Automatic annotation (TrEMBL):
Cellular-component GO terms for this entry: plasma membrane
SUPFAM superfamilies: P-loop containing nucleoside triphosphate hydrolases
Organism (species): Ramlibacter albus
Gene3D superfamilies listed in its UniProt record: P-loop containing nucleotide triphosphate hydrolases
Protein known as: ABC transporter ATP-binding protein
Highest taxon, organism lineage: Bacteria
Keyword Ribosomal protein among record annotations: no
Molecular function per GO: ATP binding; ATP hydrolysis activity
Keywords of this entry: ATP-binding, Cell membrane, Membrane, Nucleotide-binding, Transport
UniProt domain ABC transporter: residue ranges: 6-254
Pfam families per the UniProt record, alphabetical: ABC_tran, BCA_ABC_TP_C
Length: 267
C-alpha cells in the first residue's frame, strides 16, 4: 500500500492568464482511495483532467507505474489500466446495460479482423472471457435486475452505478471518479460509498476521486488533498484535512460546504 502508483511532481497548468494549477505535487499509493477536495475553481477538475490526459501540464511531470504519463495520448490510458467516470454520465443510452459493459471490454480485444469475421475458436474463447468478466462486475455492483434494460429508461442513480461498472469492466489499476455523488440523493450516495469501498477491498483497485460531499469523502478516503486557487493547502486523513484551518478558511463563504464540514467534524 505504500508504493506509489501515480506521482505528480510540481505540476502547473495555465489557461491564458489563469494559473489553474500552481506547483502541485502528490502521490497516489497502490490500493488507496485518494480524494481531491476544494471549493469551486480550486483546480481539482484540472488536475483530474491532466491524469486522464485531457490536458497537458504547462510544467511538471506525472508518472504512472514509473512511466511518464504525459507522453501518452488520451486514447491509450485505458490500455495502461486507467479508467474514469464522468460528472455527467456518458453511456450509450439506447443500448442495454449488458451491451454498455461489453463495449467497456473493447480495450481487451486482441483478436484480429479475420478471426472475428470467421468467429474462430480463439474469438469464441475471448468472447466467453469478456462475458464472464462483465457478469462478475454485474454481480459485484448488484446490477442483475438492470442487465437487459436500456440505459435510457433507468433512474439516474442506477445509471451512475452502470457507469462505474463500465469503468470496472476495463479491469483498471487506477479508477478516476469525477464527483461520484453528483446528482445522487442521500441514500444513493450511501450506496455509492459502499460500492467504492467494495471496489477497493474486493478488487484492490486504486481510486482517485474529486468529490464535494464531505460525508462520502470521510467514509471512503484514506487520504485527502485539499486545494484552493490552484494550490495544495492541506493533505492527510479526512479528519486532519477537514479540521485544517486553511481548509476551513478556504470554504468560508460557501455556506453549504462549511455546514457540511462542521457536521462531519461534530460526528
Ligand atoms: N479550459 C479552461 N479554460 C480556461 N480556464 C479554465 C479552463 N478549465 C478551468 N479553468 C479555470 O481554472 C480554474 C480551476 O478550475 P477547475 O475546474 O479545475 O476547478 P474545480 O476545483 O474543479 O472547480 P469545481 O468544483 O467548480 O468544478 C478556474 O478558475 C477555472 O475557471
Amino acid at each position: 500500500m505504500n508504493d506509489p502508483l501515480l506521482t505528480a511532481k510540481n505540476i502547473s497548468v495555465r489557461f491564458g492568464g489563469v494559473l489553474a494549477v500552481n506547483d502541485v505535487s502528490f502521490d497516489v499509493k497502490r490500493g488507496e482511495v485518494f480524494t481531491l477536495i476544494g471549493p469551486n475553481g480550486a483546480g481539482k477538475t484540472t488536475v483530474f483532467n491532466l491524469i486522464s490526459r485531457i490536458y497537458n501540464p504547462t510544467q511538471g511531470s506525472i508518472t504512472y507505474e514509473g512511466e511518464e504519463l504525459t507522453a501518452l495520448p488520451p486514447h491509450r490510458i485505458a490500455r495502461v489500466g486507467i479508467a474514469r467516470t464522468f460528472q455527467n454520465i456518458e453511456l450509450f443510452e439506447h443500448a442495454t446495460v449488458l451491451h454498455n459493459l461489453l463495449i467497456g471490454r473493447h480495450t481487451h480485444r486482441s483478436t484480429g479482423l479475420f478471426a472475428e469475421m470467421f468467429f474462430t475458436g480463439k474469438v469464441r474463447a475471448a468472447e466467453r472471457a469478456h462475458r464472464e468478466k462483465v457478469e462478475q462486475v454485474i454481480d459485484l455492483l448488484n446490477l442483475q435486475k438492470a442487465r437487459d434494460l436500456l440505459v435510457a429508461g433507468l433512474p439516474y442513480g442506477v445509471r451512475k452505478v452502470v457507469e462505474l461498472a463500465r469503468a470496472l469492466c476495463t479491469e483498471p489499476k487506477l479508477l478516476l471518479l469525477d464527483e461520484p455523488s453528483s446528482g445522487l440523493n442521500v441514500e444513493e450516495t450511501d450506496d455509492m460509498a459502499f460500492w467504492i469501498q467494495d471496489i477497493k477491498h474486493e478488487l484492490g483497485v486504486t481510486v482517485l476521486m474529486v468529490e464535494h460531499d464531505m460525508t462520502l469523502v470521510s467514509k471512503v478516503s484514506d487520504r485527502v488533498l485539499a486545494m484552493n486557487q490552484g494550490e495544495v493547502i492541506a493533505m492527510g486523513t479526512p479528519r486532519e484535512v477537514q479540521s485544517h484551518p486553511a481548509v476551513i478558511e478556504a470554504y468560508l463563504g460557501t455556506v453549504d460546504d462549511v455546514s457540511s464540514l462542521r457536521r462531519e467534524l461534530a460526528a
